[in-house]
Design brief:
Blueprint (H helix, E strand, L loop, with lengths): L3 E3 L2 E3 L17 H73 L34 E3 H4 L22 E5 L2 H4 L8 E4 L2 E4 L7 E5 L5 E6 L4 H16 L4 E4 L1 H10 L12 H4 L2 H4 L2 E6 L1 H10 L7 E5 L9 E2 L3 H10 L2 E6 L2 E6 L13 E3 L2 E5 L9 E5 L2 E6 L3 E5 L7 H4 L12 E6 L9 E3 L5 E4 L8 E5 L2 E6 L4 E6 L4 E4 L4 H13 L17
Parallel strand pairs: 8-9, 8-10, 10-11, 11-12
Antiparallel strand pairs: 1-2, 3-4, 4-7, 5-6, 7-13, 13-26, 14-15, 14-25, 16-19, 16-23, 17-18, 17-22, 19-20, 20-21, 22-25, 23-24
The structure holds nicotinamide-adenine-dinucleotide (NAD) and adenosine-5'-triphosphate.
Pfam families: NAD_kinase, NAD_kinase_C
Family: Belongs to the NAD kinase family.
GO molecular function: ATP binding; NAD+ kinase activity
Amino acid sequence: MSPRQENGIVSCSLHENGTSDPLPLAYSEKAVQEMLQLPLEGIDNNLVEFSEAMRTVAKALRRAAEGKTSAQAEAAEWKRKFELEKSRNLQLERKAISSVNSCCDLPNKRTSDLADQPEVCLPANGKNGHCCGANGICNHEVLRDGEVRSDSEPVNKKVVKKASFKLSWNSEGSKGNQYKHDVVSFDRGNISTTERSSKQIFLKWDSNPQTVLVLTKPNSDSVKLLCSELVRWLKDQKKLNIYVEPRVRSELLDESSSFNFVQTWKEDEEVLLLHTKVDLVVTLGGDGTVLWAASLFKGPVPPVVPLSMGSLGFMTAFHSEQYKESLDSVLQGPVSITLRHRLQCYVIRETAKHEFDTEEPILVLNEVTIDRGISSYLTNLECYCDNTFVTCVQGDGLILSTTSGSTAYSLAAGGSMVHPQVPGILFTPICPHSLSFRPLILPEHVTVRVQVPFNSRSSAWASFDGKDRKQLNPGDALICSMAPWPVPTACQVDSTSDFLRSIHEGLHWNLRKIQNSDGPSSST
Ligand SMILES: NC(=O)c1ccc[n+]([C@@H]2O[C@H](COP(=O)([O-])OP(=O)(O)OC[C@H]3O[C@@H](n4cnc5c(N)ncnc54)[C@H](O)[C@@H]3O)[C@@H](O)[C@H]2O)c1
Ligand SMILES: Nc1ncnc2c1ncn2[C@@H]1O[C@H](COP(=O)(O)OP(=O)(O)OP(=O)(O)O)[C@@H](O)[C@H]1O
């Protein structure tokens, strides 16, 4: 082999048989060293230069990606603010109209009598702009978004309008006329909190509920049996209109044609208008049926009465055998409710032309999970909270959970159990490959962004309340923030008793035999 230098690169010539020329004897090791020194340095210099150039390019790319990520997060935040502002403006508009129409001057006048007028309320006390006083809120003020009269009103039925109700909560301050709307008050330089969001909320009907949607777990004979009994009772004894899913209507009609009073829908679009027709939702099943019920409502959700017919039943406080007593008391009111917050998730594709080009939002009651799917590689998920980098999740994935979902998948992944009335977003890693990655709980006002970086080895997968898996390719992102529409579930006792009962009975939380008193005493 004869080493040659061409353009600063050393090359050796090989014979076709793969052997090389023996080095001339004059080439001592030192000589070789000297000969090779210069060209090798040339290679090194080139490599160093090249790697520096690559580093600069990588840095520029990373900066561009970070810039894009932060711009996307900012855009999503603005979008969220825009939506909140829009709904706030809508409320103000309604209040303004209400002062003209004075609908609340007519106590208990049913809104159906006002079918052609905007359905709004006049402040009853002339104060605060709320018809229900300072520590309450009327459903007319919050639940009217997107309510449009459907052209396809249910077959053979008269137009029925929703029952009105008000929500109220205990406020110590209001007793002494010291009620303040501010979260924090400054009284002579002293800071005190006057308002917290986790008070027990009561629902009181202003007019009687007229329409009930009954949702049932499929493929269960006991559920089917109870469903027909319950539907009959609601119709005959309570004189209520009943809606069920198309599948359930067919099942009921198969049983008897006398169930033809039961209403349903044909098109999926009609489901979007359900909240305008339904006063109350009753679920027959387990937690999965409550999740299913919530998923049908992409906007406001009517109060839900979950009758337990599953094995665990964290969110199903009512025993199904006692459905008559339970429903009697809920229909009569007032009833304690838990406002279960939901998360609103958007997927932004890398190919999106601009930041508002997101897919339809998905609302979750438990959690959104971003995991590695069938890939055997670690996930590589860059997470941002508002515009601040949080961490990179390397492991099996990440759970962004509501506090209601804190007892579900998040719990299994090591997250804390949180009272469902506490607003917040749980940030729980799944099998992180790091010893120090403890779960976080973030405040309710933040927007979390999970980005699959371009250099990720594989795609990630998002699933929503354990359903609807969506592939997230490198460059795609998922944005998640608190949704404006919670799921109000009726309580058996109250929010806190129901939560504690479910962790005791459902999970046997901290169950341990009490220690005997006959051990060593402290004096010995
Ligand atoms: N490793 C896990 O624990 C794990 C894995 C996958 C999904 N899940 C949970 O299952 C949920 C979907 O429920 P499903 O009924 O449609 O599926 P499913 O039929 O597979 O039931 C999952 C279990 O989770 C329970 N569960 C659901 N929501 C709960 C909650 N808020 N608190 C306590 N327990 C709850 C259900 O009662 C059921 O026992 C997902 O949202 C997820 O939280 C848990
Ligand atoms: N009306 C419905 N239509 C379609 N799927 C439904 C409906 N109701 C429930 N499901 C689904 O059926 C599955 C089982 O429901 P659910 O969790 O209520 O019953 P369960 O598994 O017997 O209860 P538990 O989880 O307490 O043991 C869930 O995945 C849920 O999403």
